Amino acid sequence: MTLETLPRHQRAAVDMIEWERLAVPEARRLRELGFDQGVPVEVLHRARMGSGPIACRIGRMTVALRRAVARSIRVSTAALPAE
């Protein structure tokens, strides 16, 4: 499942990021925000328009991601880190 298709308010962990699908600035931004394998993530809000951004929580931060970027982030609900 990708971050784009993760249901709202369901916690998951980043399984893998398809870095090759991202432009260099996008990949750099994800790394700076702390996106990496095993990091907990949760979708908080989706824009009403089908192509709008997705707001998600990573750690204690809330960030907005373009849907194309969210499509490159694979997540798993089975591998959640302990709280």
TrEMBL record:
Residues 1-77 form the Ferrous iron transporter FeoA-like domain. Coiled coil: none annotated. It comes from the Bacteria. GO terms for molecular function: transition metal ion binding. Keywords: Iron. This is Ferrous iron transport protein A. It comes from Sphingomonas adhaesiva.
